[in-house]
């Protein structure tokens, strides 16, 4: 790749590739400046590659990995990731380290969640997360959560767990809005999603299925989900009424003894 190649837009794949390359370099004991010199590159080229904002040829990635003593299947996997790094849709099978989803949420300055089945990860109490066999990741940045009323009624983990979960929603420093069941069909009906907005103006839609994380970056796809957010917002209760409903449902679950 020429040193004069212009900066390109990053993608979920290119950011993941850059993160993994940086890890390989550090594990091999290379400082970025020394690695750049050994490859005959500028320090800026290494920095852009590792931050995901610069594409790389197979030769570039192979040379980088060779200096970092990466071989075999891992070498082939990262070269293949480089070849795919310009694509705007990525399906990541569950069973990996969850690093991609965490990184994409962490880089976002504003996140909009729509949930129609269970409470989204960043709002879960440890007890609720354990009942789902999941973890409760930290919430960062500004977030708005649209929760279907049925999510608050579904007794995940039993009454005590649900009571604690709903009380947690009341205390959460986030905008939580309830979508009443009586709203009927609306733009969010097809399924849960998270819309992630970053400071560079790029947005990613994160979908979770039973077998994979899906990341959508195509502008047309993102626009459709942004329109869905507007549709959901139009039928959701305001924050004050949502808090009232959550409180009423917390009373309904009743704070029964643990295990009830």
Automatic annotation (TrEMBL):
InterPro entries: Cro/C1-type_HTH, DUF5753, Lambda_DNA-bd_dom_sf. PROSITE patterns: HTH_CROC1. GO terms for molecular function: DNA binding. It comes from the Bacteria. Residues 21-75 form the HTH cro/C1-type domain. CDD domains: HTH_XRE. SUPFAM superfamilies: lambda repressor-like DNA-binding domains. This is Helix-turn-helix domain-containing protein.
């Amino acid at each position: 790749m020429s040193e004069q190649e212009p900066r390109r837009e990053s993608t979920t794949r290119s950011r993941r590739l850059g993160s993994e390359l940086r890890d390989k370099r550090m594990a091999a004991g290379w400082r970025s400046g020394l690695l750049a010199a050994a490859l005959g590159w500028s320090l800026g080229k290494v920095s852009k590659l590792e931050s995901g904002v610069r594409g790389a040829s197979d030769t570039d990635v192979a040379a980088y990995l060779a200096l970092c003593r990466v071989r075999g299947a891992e070498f082939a996997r990262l070269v293949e990731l480089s070849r795919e790094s310009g694509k705007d849709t990525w399906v990541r099978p569950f069973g990996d380290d969850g690093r991609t989803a965490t990184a994409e949420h962490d880089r976002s300055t504003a996140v909009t969640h729509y949930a129609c089945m269970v409470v989204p990860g960043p709002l879960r109490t440890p007890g609720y997360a354990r009942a789902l066999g999941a973890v409760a990741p930290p919430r960062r940045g500004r977030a708005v959560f649209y929760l279907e009323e049925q999510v608050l009624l579904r007794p995940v983990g039993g009454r005590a767990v649900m009571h604690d979960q709903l009380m947690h929603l009341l205390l959460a420093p986030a905008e939580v809005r309830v979508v009443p069941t009586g709203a009927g069909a609306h733009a969010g009906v097809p399924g849960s999603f998270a819309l992630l907005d970053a400071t560079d103006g790029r947005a990613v839609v994160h979908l979770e299925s039973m077998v994979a994380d899906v990341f959508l970056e195509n502008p047309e796809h993102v626009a459709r989900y942004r329109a869905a957010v507007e549709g959901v917002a139009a039928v959701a209760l305001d924050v004050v009424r949502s808090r009232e409903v959550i409180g009423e449902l917390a009373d309904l679950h009743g704070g029964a003894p643990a295990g009830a």
